[in-house]
Write a structure and sequence with these properties.
mainly beta, 5-stranded mixed sheet, 4-stranded antiparallel sheet, 2 helices, 33 strands, 45% strand, globular
């Protein structure tokens, strides 16, 4: 009996030790969807309660990473990037300078921290990928991706948020030989490199696709969407995704053989049907929705997002590509959603600083509540994040936590 009790206690302790919560760009599946219960269906007239705020992040557009009751975010001061670690009550627990950040135009940090199995992965706008110990913030390894892999930086600095699957981290140097690479997440050692299409990256964070005959990684590179064999780096296919400046920051979305992508500048969106083997595709439909960097969410049979040149909020039928509505009563921006069962709400953060709670319905752009973000500095570009009933909003120098 004593032996059984000891074994039970050991198993419980072991489970607690190894129960590691991870976090990455735009939620668990990079789709902007957060599954939480008990959230408000309507906000007070002045907006939800501000639990806490922090002024002093420095310049940046980075979104929050939230895991293990800690909040991770980066900012730049005097050209140096710094990682900030808060508890969920807003207490600053730690901070760590990690090196030179992007200070050439639209200054500040870009990439969202990837919290993964006790490590933190940060990719600077200058192309340095760092792995830090989550508890001590000591550097485990670091790679100068542009120099080590003959990559090329781009007009507004590298913006990719690292993708980690199992023990592999995928990153896009955008060079002629090392177009995309796969590294060992524990050591930083090269697993494979791919020539891809030999063109620069384009501010996009890649997507991992399982469920096909082979695992696939898809990323926007220059004016194309490119698919790679995730195990070998073999380029499988590419499709033109032009826009006026080669900017395609949106992570694509995949579901049941269908891949959706959107790019700004008036050139719109498209849905592709991938072959089961993953080696090819056919174009299913296109739509004028031209989201530049605000992301999109799919809820039920509909995609919700906003345009850049076509400055409306859109609802698009996933099955047909038909526009169900387009509405301009709120400035365009980025979007996330909370989905619980058959109930879904959109959180739309406009480039004018309005934050709106919108019912996810194809009937109309149904604003339930909205308020103005008045704290912070510069552009309203960072994507909000929902974590344990709190909405985290970053506006330049300021991080805010709202009870929702």
């Amino acid at each position: 009996m004593k032996k059984l009790i000891v074994l039970f206690l050991f198993a419980s302790v072991a489970t607690g030790l190894f129960a590691q919560e991870n976090s990455q760009w735009r939620g668990k599946n990079r789709d902007g969807i957060y599954h939480e219960t008990g959230l408000l269906k309507q906000w007070p007239e002045t907006g939800p309660q501000l639990l806490w705020s922090f002024d002093g992040l420095g310049e940046g557009h980075t979104s929050v990473a939230a895991a293990n009751d800690k909040i991770y975010i980066t900012g730049m001061t005097d050209s140096i990037g710094t990682l900030y670690v808060f508890d969920v009550q807003g207490k600053l627990l730690n901070k760590k300078a990690y090196g030179l950040e992007w200070n050439t135009n639209w200054n500040g940090t870009r990439s969202t921290v990837n919290v993964n199995d006790g490590k933190l992965y940060i990719f600077s706008g200058r192309g340095v990928l760092s792995c830090l110990d989550e508890k001590t913030l000591n550097v485990v390894w670091s790679k100068d991706v542009l120099n080590d892999f003959d990559g090329r930086n781009i007009m507004f600095g590298l913006t990719e948020s690292p993708l980690i699957v199992d023990d592999v981290i995928y990153i896009t140097p955008g060079g002629e030989t090392y177009n995309m690479v796969a590294l060992n997440k524990n050591t930083g050692e090269l697993i494979w490199s791919s020539k891809g299409i030999g063109k620069p990256s384009t501010y996009c964070s890649p997507l991992y696709i399982s469920g096909l005959d082979i695992p696939v990684v898809v990323n926007a590179i220059d004016s194309c969407l490119v698919a790679f064999n995730a195990k070998t780096g073999e380029k499988l296919w590419d499709v033109e995704q032009k826009n006026p400046h080669g900017h395609s920051p949106n992570t694509p979305y995949f579901e049941k053989g269908l891949l959706f992508t959107s790019s700004g500048g008036g050139l719109g969106s498209m849905q592709l049907r991938l072959t089961p083997c993953g080696h090819n595709f056919e174009k299913v439909w296109t739509n004028e929705l031209d989201n530049k960097m605000g992301g999109f969410v799919k809820i039920g049979d509909y995609v919700y997002s906003s345009g850049e040149k076509n400055r409306y909020w859109y609802c698009v039928d996933w099955k047909t590509g038909e526009t169900k509505y387009k509405d301009n009563q709120l400035g365009v921006g980025n979007v996330i959603a909370n989905v619980t069962g058959n109930d879904a709400m959109l959180y739309c953060y406009s480039d004018k600083g309005d934050l709106a709670l919108v019912k996810a319905t194809p009937e109309k752009f149904d604003i339930i509540s909205k308020f103005k973000i008045t704290l912070g500095t510069d552009q309203h570009w960072a994507h909000p994040v929902i974590y344990k009933g709190v909405l985290y909003v970053r506006h330049g120098n300021t991080l805010m936590a709202y009870k929702i």
